Amino acid sequence: MVLELPGDSTCPYSEMARCDKKLLLHGLGKTLGIDVRETKDGRREVFYNAEHQNLLDTSTENKPHRQKAGDLVVASIFRRRKARSGDGDGNPFIYALKGLHRHSISNGQLWKFRPNFLSTLGAYMSESPYDKIAPLPSSKPIARYVAKKAGSYQPEAVVEHQLFLKRSAAEVLAELEEKYSSDEIPRKLKGPAAALISRLRKSQNANFAMKHVDQRLRDYIEPLVLAPNAPVSGHRILLVDDLLSSGATLRTAHRLLTEAGAAHVAALCLLSKV
Questions:
Q1: Is the C-alpha dihedral spanning 255, 127, 97, 3 positive or negative?
Q2: Which of 73, 74, 77 is nearest to 61 (CA)?
Q3: Which one, of 258, 202, 195, lies nearest residue 226 by Cα?
Q4: Among 47, 89, 118, 200, which one is least packed by beta carbons within 10 Å?
C-alpha cells in the first residue's frame, strides 16, 4: 500500500487527525515490532508484532530517539533496528508505506502503530516552539504527512511545503564533475562517482534524487537549494523527513537555513538511522 496524502479517502492515515483521543486509549506504549511475510505471488506484507521489536522499535519509552547529522540534532519517532541476517534495518516498514519493492501494509496493520506515533510526536512537539515546519522535498507524501501532523500540535507554526527546491540532475552533475576533476572525491570512490556521473549525463532534465546514490558519495552532493525569497531569517524551523539515512540532505538543509539567518534549526524523522 502506498501512503497517500492526508484527507484522501485511500490514505491509511486519513482518519488519524479525527481520532487522536480514541487512538491514545487503545494500545499506547505497547511493544510493536514488525514481521514481513512473503505471499505466494512474491509480494511482501508487513505486519505489526506486539511480542518483539525486531526491525522496528516503536515503543514510547525514551523517545523520540535522538541522533546527529553533522551539527544538527535529529529526533526520530520510531527507531530502526538491524535484522539478524542480511541487510534488513527496518526498511520494510518504509518500503511498505511507499509501496516499494513489492512491500505493502494494510490499513488495519498500520492503525496499530498510530497510538505510539501520536504519543511520541505529541511529546516531542511540546518540548520547543517553532515558527515554521518544513518537510523536505519528496515524491512520496510521508514527510509532508508527518509535518502536517506535527503542525497540528503547534497551530501557530506555518507548515512550509515549498521552502526547499530539489536541484536538477544537471546542476548536481556539474558540481560532481568539478569535484571529481579536482580530486576532492577520494580515489576509493572514483569508481562509484564515475558511474553516477555517467547516469546523471543521461537524465540531466530530471530532478536529482538522492535515494539511488551510493551512501559513501552522499557527503559530496548537495541535493537542495532554498526557494527564492524563502522566509527564513530569525525563525525557528523544524525540518521533517521520512527517515534518517546518511543525513546528507538534512545537513544540506541545515547549512542553507543557518546561512540564511535562521534562529534555530531542528529535525524530525519518522524512522531513525540504524
A1: negative
A2: 77
A3: 258
A4: 47
pTM: 0.85
C-alpha 129/C-alpha 151 separation (Å) is 10
For 51, residues 6+ apart whose C-beta sits below 8 A from its C-beta are 31, 33
Cα 161 from Cα 108, distance rounded (Å): 29
Closest CA to 131 of 230, 65, 222: 230
The confidence score (pLDDT) of residue 20 equals 44
Instruction: State the pLDDT at residue 24.
Output: 42
**pLDDT value at position 141?**
95
The order of strands in the sheet holding 103-104 is: 33-38, 44-49, 103-104
Low-confidence spans in the chain with pLDDT less than 70: 1-31, 83-90
Please state whether 170 falls in left (phi above 0), alpha (psi between -120 and 50) or beta.
alpha
Domains of the chain: 16-164+227-271 (3.40.50.2020), 168-221 (no CATH)
Cell 576533476, located at residue? 181
pLDDT number for residue 83: 66
The predicted pLDDT at position 32 comes to 78
Q: Would you give the DSSP letter of residue 274?
A: -
